[in-house]
Amino acid sequence: MNPIILNTEKREIYGKKLRSLRKKGVLPIHVYGPGMESIALQSETNNVLKVLQEAGRTNPVKIIDSDKEHTTLVRHVDQHPATGELQHVDFMRVDENKAIEVEVPVVLIGEAPGTRGGAGTVTQAIYSLSVLSKPFTVPSEIQADVSVLVDLETNIKRGDLVLPEGVELIGDPDIPVAWIQPPRVQEEVEVEEGAEEGAEEGAEEGAEDSPQSDESGDTDN
Predict the structure, then answer these.
(1) 66 and 146 housed in the same domain
(2) Is the distance from CB of 85 to CB of 122 less than 8 angstroms?
(3) How many domains does the chain have?
(4) For 20-56, how does the pLDDT look when each residue is reduced to its tens digit (9 = 90+)?
(5) Sheet with 121-124: strands ordered across
(6) Domain coverage including residue 108
(7) Domain check: are 64 and 106 in the same one?
(8) For residues 179 and 155, is the Cβ–Cβ distance under 8 A?
(9) What is the value of pTM for the model shown?
């Protein structure tokens, strides 16, 4: 994997003055990690956007800081709550030769035979997987092939997912990732119709048993 590179400069602006920095098209960033103090840096906003789109949360980013290099992963992206514009980005420095815990997206592929003829729909419960991997071997996604879902009794568990070499699953392998959910629309409609009919019959019986409203009410004393 070719490293994704972000060129940066030392940052001397902090606090409320960061607004003027962003208006100039420059974004504040931080680099932090074990055994180091947080480093305040800055880079052109357009360059940071390109890096975020390419790296996501799983691909390492080489941050060039003057004459130093930091191998990092994107850890936090702060956006303006109203406009969605980038406010700052945090990068966590990692050791290229040590495995780290990373959340990798789970993507369903293929067609489930058990859904044919309206027998049900595929339900996905797990959308990411915690794995151990060295930074440059972290997969961008983990695929779950739903072609094994042949009926309502089958499912795909975390331990069934095929991981690349050097990538290790973290956590319980028996937790279901995806299965076929039987259709419920028709059942819900039937239940609702039955409830409505019961309510109407109850109202009619109550009206027959109660005194006639014309003779009992609304008179002035």
Answers:
(1) no
(2) no
(3) 2
(4) 999 999 999 999 998 788 999 999 999 999 999 999 8
(5) 121-124, 176-181, 155-157
(6) 100-181
(7) no
(8) yes
(9) 0.70
